[in-house]
Amino acid sequence: MKKIESERRAEFVKIVNESKWDKNICFVMDYEFDFSPNFLDLDWKCKLVVFKNCHFVGHLYFTNTNLGGGIQFEQCAFQYGLTFNNCTAGDHPSFLSDGSPFSVSFSGCEVNNRFIIKNCNLQHKILIHRDTKMPFLEFENSKMEGVDIVNSTVLGEVRIIGFNISMLFNFYSTTFHKLVKFSNCIGGYSLDQSTFLKEFSLYRCQFVTFEARETHCHGEVIFVENKAEVEVSFRDSTYERPVTMVGDYIPGSWNSHIEKLILINDSIELSKIIMS
């Protein structure tokens, strides 16, 4: 692994510009960055930038940056986390092997400290998958196609505020160890075969769709002043602590084991409730 100790931004940008290129894709491989790189005010024209087997010792920043088609991290380690602030992506979308587009992807990575997204406009989704380990997630005031967290582990809290998602927040086969909280978000929700060890809550969100299937919630589930355009579905899931709904308008379909359901000033249609 090649070690880069310089903090000069120009040298870091040069590494990217002079890395391996293949069909308008830039590959940055086997580097250790012993500082806090900042992609500031850059406009990438390439289809995709791939960081593979890289180690970022300092916090990695993308600020006021056009990410081009997107950015992909494979088997990378982030000692102090990373931040995307006021970034855009998606003019020339990147695709996974199954053909689905993405703007930012993490595959087999380990992120310490924090992963932060603020004030971004991404054409496609953020994808966290293939046994990636994430810390505290702080997502604020951004717009994109979706957020997929698949076959991964989130060790810290998840706080998502003011996100506008055109498709889904998709959590599949992932364990969340701390609080997961959504506030003032718009989009669909799919919780499939995932485990929430602490509180899962939604405050003043608008659901395009909401389905929980084979999901296990060990902490409280709290809904406050949410609106659902379509039916909210809870199927074949378990809830060990109370499910609380306050001031929601939610058409619902329940086929799950719920220890205790608390409704306060709600307008909710519950076609089936199984209490255990």
Molecular structure report:
The protein has 276 residues and is mainly beta. Helix content is 3%, strand content 57%. The protein has two domains: 1-156; 168-276. The chain has a 21-stranded mixed β-sheet that branches. An eleven-stranded parallel β-sheet has the order 5-8-11-17-21-25-28-31-34-37-39, with no helix packed on it. The protein has a five-stranded parallel β-sheet with strand order 1-4-7-10-16, with no helix packed on it.
Number of helices: 1
Sheet having the most strands: 21 strands, mixed
Radius of gyration: 20 Å
Distance between the termini: 55 Å
Question: pLDDT under 50 segments (min length 5)?
Answer: 271-276
Mean pLDDT: 85
- Strand fraction equals over 45%
Shape descriptor: elongated
Give the strand tally: 41
Helical residues, percent: under 10%
Q: In total, how many domains does the architecture comprise?
A: 2
Structural class by sheet pairing and helices = mainly beta
